[in-house]
Amino acid sequence: MDKSSTVRIGSIQMKDTHEVSANGSFTTLDVGAANFNDATKVVDVIDKAFSSDPTWSWAFPDQEARRRFWELQINGALRYPWVFKTTNFETVSAWIPPGGTELSHEQEEQFPGLLEELVGSRAADVAKLIDRFDEAHPRTEPHYYLSLLGTHNKCRGLGLGMALLRENLVRIDAEHMPAYLESSNPANNKRYESVGFKQVTSFQAPGNGPTVAGMWREKY
Fold it and tell me: What is the pLDDT at residue 52?
């Protein structure tokens, strides 16, 4: 991460989408922790942001099934104060802190049955993909794990997702902790590299499906 750039905890800037003055015009967006009351709005953003993601569209081609999977993931992440949103849910992120788990014990027990309900005869292949996420996940050092990062469709292309990621990384750097994420869309790899992540592993969905990159960022 470029330490010469000023990134503050608690806010990011969005370039105005209307006609901009010669020297530029920006709106400041507050960044705060989401809670369970925000779950539906967070899921809305993630659902739209990942609508054409190659990996998750492969896993859950049906949009409603995919949304139910995101509901599970977001509710699991909201057990921790590391799900972040901007002022009007322009962009959101979901982190799992060191020692945490993506799902609760109860959710883990329910997951196989839910998967069969969501994808039917493809449940075994989708389960293999999810197992590969788990197998590739580093276990040697405590770290923050970026489970999901997405931007509302109306705000795409403004750099807000990466701005929120930079803000979150300032929080993590303050704890001198490393971070890990999976890039389920190769188009995003260079964006993650620009803030200090490096690819350390990769794996593929069954049947010559999409490839996922596991990316690690050392502690600062």
Answer: 95
